[in-house]
Amino acid sequence: MLDRLVGLAMLIVATTVFLYYTTWTLLMPFVDQGHPLHDFFPPRVWAIRIPVILILLASAVVGSFLSVVMIRSNRKKAAKARAVEAGKKKA
To answer: For this UniProt entry, which residues form the secretion signal (predicted)?
Structure first.
């Protein structure tokens, strides 16, 4: 039951962010600059900057995770190879 609640919360958050961003980028350019609706949105330049920053941050996190996994995997393989070599020398 908790997983459905968390899933519903994630769906609501994603839908809200999508609707806000879509309104901001697609509808607000057609609204007059003096309209009070512009007070709810940051300047349009951030409509490009925010996704670029998020993509760079996400790729850095994914790249760091992959490098850590590859380094650990390589260490395990090296340790196994040393153990095999040590076993051959004893025999």
So the answer is: none
Q: How far apart are the first and last CA of the chain?
A: 58
What pTM did the predictor assign? 0.71
String of DSSP letters for the chain: -HHHHHHHHHHHHHHHHHHHHHIIIIIGGGS-TTSGGGGGS--TTHHHHHHHHHHHHHHHHHHHHHHHHHHHHHHHHHHHHHHHHHHHHH-
* Per-residue pLDDT, 33: 92
